[in-house]
Amino acid sequence: xxHVRASYRLPCLLLVIFALSASTxxxxxxxxxxxxxxxxxxIGLADSPGYGKGVAFVDVNGDGWDDLWDLNTNISRGxxxxxxxxxxxxxxxxxxxxxxxxVDPEDVKFAWGAAxxxxxxxxxxxxxxxxxxxxxxxxxxxxxxRWKQEQRFVNISRQAGLTAEKHQWWAASxxxxxxxxxxxFATVASHGRVWIYKNGCDKTFTEVAEKLGIRVTFxxxxxxxxxxxDNDGDPDLYIAAKENHRLYRNxxxxxxxxxxEKLASPSIRVAxxxxxxxxxxNHDGHIDLYLGRQERQxxxxxxxxxxxxxxxGQEIGIVTKTTPDTSENTMGLGVGDINDDxxxxxxxxxxxxxxxxxxxxxxxxxxxx
Length: 369
Ligand SMILES: [Ca+2]
Ligand SMILES: [Ca+2]
Ligand SMILES: [Ca+2]
Ligand SMILES: [Ca+2]
Hints:
This protein is mainly beta. The chain is about 5% helix and about 35% strand. The chain is built from 3 helices and 24 strands. The strands form 6 sheets. The chain has a 5-stranded antiparallel sheet with strand order 1-6-7-8-9. A 4-stranded antiparallel sheet has the order 2-3-4-5, with no helix packed on it. The chain has a 4-stranded antiparallel sheet with strand order 10-11-12-13, with no helix packed on it. Strand 20 and strand 21 form a beta hairpin. The two termini are about 25 Å apart. The site of one calcium ion has 6 residues, from loops.
């Protein structure tokens, strides 16, 4: 999945994907979509039975070729919900080979979220996995990239100070919220709370959510999204949730202030957000927030001067709820400029589209200003 870099360091993020099995890629022509051909099998990417949670391109061995991480779970393997995740190493000749990079299947058991980032500033991407999915006994696992030294990743979760508690971890996202040069991360226990881990810049982390004033709990929390919505140079935090979604403003030493009311609209009930991402969709210098909702029309909260938002949906052509009784869940979001026109396109994977009237969507900006 390709994400746009904001003004602060935003690492490669693997967002929750439910039914979208391929990430968006930059195209080469305006008609690129019509000319794509599925080459997965012929270049070594095997069929991967299961839910199809998400994929991320990431160059783990620093050879200049993006490798591919396929996060997946094979639900046909019974109640243990065995991991079916696969790492494909780019051979540099247009093909991929399956490689065991050392990730314990137990750590990606029914995993829905993972995030790559160079948390230790040694110029290679490391891996954070938020596992649990529909179960409530998943692990939060941090793997250090030791490919240069040992050709593998090493689980350093306990040494790094991460909790051993098992939860329904849903998603995680990295950002340097305190601007000390070391990436911190937020993660969400779907039936639980937000966890914020501050990076001590020494390969250890301290959990600081409550200290920062972030105390919300969820019945069904989703992905955390860092965004500097007030343009003051520090990452603020939005947390998608099917209820109780939250927007927090980063006030530095004073912690984070709950400013969710900024996402209120007199005409639209905003809640029930299943997946979200942030970027400046309309190129006006203010970061925007895409709100992919549960069984409701998707929305964009366009950032405005002064740190406010204008919330719009169907009136600018975003139509994700096509009939009153159709439940189109925006469960997966992929973002990328498919046709090279300079504006990001949005790919939506709706859960279970093969089973009913749901449709996946590709939203292409036409004249957003
Ligand atoms: Ca690293
Ligand atoms: Ca930091
Ligand atoms: Ca800010
Ligand atoms: Ca904007």
